[in-house]
Amino acid sequence: MSEYSTGELGKLFNISNRSIQFYDKKDLLKPAYIKDNNYRVYTEKEVEKLKIILILKNMDISLKDIKELLQNDKDMKSMVLLQSWIYSIILTKRSLL
Q1: What residues form DSSP beta bridges with 42?
Q2: DSSP code of 38?
Q3: Are 49 and 57 in contact (CB under 8 A)?
Q4: Taking the model in full, what pTM does it have?
């Protein structure tokens, strides 16, 4: 299983470390675990969750609503289905432009 530090996760998504820390503070994205040196470690599960957060954010959904969606949807299979549904909406919107 791949593991990512806050910096590596930020680079992967081209977002700042501060954004990731902000999502943590808002209880949107928690690390899989924290090392003894207080480094946060993220796994593929958190990567998938961050993808969903960023997609929903780009669709102008508020962070409050995103948090509610994620809290009501703990099952990863459902999260993947949600992600697929979001991608289909984006593709549909693009084809209408």
Answers
A1: 4
A2: S
A3: no
A4: 0.75
